[in-house]
Every structure is written in structure tokens, then in C-alpha cells.
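Page 42, continued from yesterday. The earlier attempt failed because a stray header line got pasted into the input along with the sequence. Redoing it now with the clean sequence only.
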Amino acid sequence: MNKRHLTGILAIGAAASLALAGCATGNQAAGGTQEGGEDSLGTITLGYLPSWTDGLSTAYLLEDQLEKAGYTVKMQELTEAGPLYAGLAQGDVDIYPSAWPELTHKSYMDKYGDKIDDLGAYYEGAKLTIAVPDYVDIDSIDDLKANADRFGGKIYGIEPGAGLTKQTQESMLPGYGLEDSYELVTSSTAAMLTELDSAEAAKRDIVVTSWRPFWANDKYNLKDLEDPKGAMGEAEALHFLATDGFKEENPEAAKLIAGIKLDDEQYASLEDTVVNTYGEGKYAEAIDEWLKENPDAYDTIVTD
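This time it went through. C-alpha cells are written below.
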């Protein structure tokens, strides 16, 4: 495979002071800096939601690759997708490293899409799901209505502003006639996982909103419930999105990013290595390990 160090041009218009929830920081452990130095090709701000670990893993992969290519990278943490899309449209964030623009985040694209550059899809087959642990003896969303008492009339979800929450609330619940028998409990991905962990330890019945790819599916042996009405939507691709004009101002970075394509095995190993094998505070080491184990994962890999 042809691995090429990229030569770039000076990035124009680095992000101004960010008016978003979250904290913008350079990742010092991974070699990032707050401002571009004399040798930097420019500063690129990555916006991501750390609780959505599919995007967390690709954010740190992208940070690694862009820094090796000569850019300075800032990491901007947010807690909701809406402000992230608004940040892209306003130029406060340069790249969203794991977007679901085709279906899950279509409403955001309808609102902001004319001010956003699509740098390409890097993974096919992402899917929103309603899931239960594999010890629960139901197999379809159709079975939920008759079993509301078993689940305490609750479906545990994630952030209120998530596309998954919107799809569940506006499509799945009314589509299966569950509005009166179930409450969609929303708070955060971490809170949902806490409930799931507790239920799994006690082998208690629980139903949650989930998605693929997501490391928790394997950890908790989650079973996707069949969706005969198609209320959770079809499979879609995950994309790298950028603020309008990014391709023209950063053509070499855009070329690097467009070359990243991951299959199921590669993406699963990336997320597992980042989230479970290494974890918070060791993301740079996790990316180094994954690249060492997957040297031919995609055709624009940047090496030291």
C-alpha cells in the first residue's frame, strides 16, 4: 500500500473563539498544541461528543493523522449534536469526525447543510436500534407492548438532542403504539450504560436505545429487536463533515480524510482499543497501537 506523507498549504482562518458548550483544548498527551507554530500547516478544530464513542475513536484517529501531516489540532468537546452542526455552519468547528447526515442527523443537514462540506463517508452500515440483553426472551419491537410491565414501562435512551432519541420518540413509539405504555428516559449515554450495567449484572429485563457500531453491543451481549415496521430507519453511512470552504483552504487535509475507509472489523477494533483497552487519558497510545495492528487499514495512512 502506498503510504504518503502529505504536503499541505497554510490553512486560512483558524477557528475563532468558540461560543459552544464544552472546552476546546489541545491534546498535549498526543503532541497537540494550543496554537500553530512556525512549522504548522495551520490549526484544525475537531468537534466531537465524547460519550458517543464511535466518534470519539475517529476523532483521535484524525487528530493523530492530521498532526503527523503537519497540522495543529484542537479538540472541542460538546454534549449535543445540534450545537456541533451549528458550530460547523458558523466556522467555529472545522470538522465533525463522525456524522450521521443521511438519516439520523438529516434534520440538522436540512438546516445547516448549505454551509457544510462533506469530506466523504468512511464507514457503511451504521444503524439505530432498540435492543435488549440476550437473556431477555423477546425478539421484536412488536413484542414490547404486551410486555410493558416486565420493563417497568421504560425504555432507557441517551441525550435528548440525539438523532436516535428523535427517531425513537417520533417514529418508533407511535409506529408501534407504545406512547401510552412506555416512557423514553433520556439523560446521557453514560446514564443509559449505568442502567444497562446494573440490569445485566442482576439479569433484570431492560430495553435501551442503541446503535451500531457501538462497543456496548458486545460488552453487554445486546440483541437488536426486529423492526418489522422499519421505524428505526435504514442503515446509513458515517461521514466526515467540515465547515464550508474547508476543502479549498485545506486540500491536502481533505485528501487525507477522504481516503479513510473502515470496514466492520477495523472499526470495531479501533473503538475497542480506544475505549476499552486503553481508555481515557491514553487515547494517543491507543491510536498508535491500532495503527501498528492495522497498517493497511486505508490508503492515506500517515506514518511518522
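Notes: The domain at 24-125+236-293 is CATH 3.40.190.10 (D-Maltodextrin-Binding Protein; domain 2).
Reminder to self: strip header lines before submitting.
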